[in-house]
């Protein structure tokens, strides 16, 4: 779907809403790896994670659009950005993606033949901890040097 194949990374920058739950099941069911991003991180940290994970797509709530847009401005490979409409959120933000989540899901193949992973060692998620900070700082310094 959308060119996502087994082993690709799909990132999510979402609050605890139904789309996040769906991503936890749907992304691994197509063989991809889910990378949930901490919504409290700054653009440098998010950019580092997107680059390091080689994210092919990202689900984003407009609540985090400013941070994600700043992060996307720093990455060399641009993932497909999918806007998720959070019906409970009425604060500031804007759509930054090429497609809306509901359209993306609706356009999917309802007869998709998902498979269990062949190998129990196949990754289904990628998580970063606070220990990533040193690498994030190096990434930020490299970005500043290139500017």
From TrEMBL:
This is AMP-dependent synthetase/ligase domain-containing protein. The keyword Ligase applies. Belongs to the ATP-dependent AMP-binding enzyme family. PANTHER family: ACYL-ACTIVATING ENZYME (PTHR43859), BUTANOATE--COA LIGASE AAE1-RELATED (PTHR43859:SF4). The keyword Nuclease does not apply. The lineage of its organism: Bacteria, Pseudomonadati, Pseudomonadota, Gammaproteobacteria, Oceanospirillales. Residues 2-135 form the AMP-dependent synthetase/ligase domain. Keywords: Fatty acid metabolism, Ligase, Lipid metabolism. It comes from Oleiphilus messinensis. InterPro entries: AMP-dep_synth/lig_dom, ANL_N_sf. One of its GO terms (biological process) is fatty acid metabolic process. GO terms for molecular function: ligase activity.
